[in-house]
């Protein structure tokens, strides 16, 4: 949980100047979740940089929706995997 934000910060800050589109996602994720009130990465960027992944905006969550709204994120993941 510590290194992921550090790595992300090196390629996306500031977003307009670093060319995030040139950096494909590491894990080839099929599902990406982002808080709709994220103050670090604007939710408007979610679909643009999803690289084909399904994007879910988590309501009333900021940059760490899996910590801020774990039940909502769990529900999204369960729905995604069909559980």
What labels describe this entry?
single chain; 83 residues; alpha+beta; two-stranded parallel ribbon; 2 strands; flat
Which SSEs are present, and which pair or pack?
Blueprint: H1 3-12, H2 15-18, E1 31-35, H3 45-48, E2 54-58, H4 65-68, H5 70-81
Parallel strand pairs: 1-2
Overview of the molecule:
- The chain is of the alpha+beta class and 83 residues long.
- It has a domain at 24-81.
- The chain contains 5 helices and 2 strands.
- A two-stranded parallel ribbon has the order 1-2.
- Strand 1, helix 3 and strand 2 (54-58) form a beta-alpha-beta unit.
- The chain starts with a helix and ends with a helix.
* Rg calc: 13 Å
What is the molecular shape? Answer: flat
Beta-strand level of the residues, as a percent range? 5-15%
Largest sheet: 2 strands, parallel
Strands side by side in the biggest sheet: 1-2
Quantity of strands, as a count? 2
Poorly predicted tracts of residues: none
Helix content: 40-55%
Structural classification = alpha+beta
Figure out the total of helices.
5
Query: How far apart, in Å, are the first and last alpha carbons?
Result: 25 Å
Mean pLDDT: 77
Order of H and E elements: HHEHEHH
What is the compact description of this entry?
With 83 residues, the protein is of the alpha+beta class. The chain has helices at residues 3-12, 15-18, 45-48, 65-68, 70-81; strands spanning 31-35, 54-58.
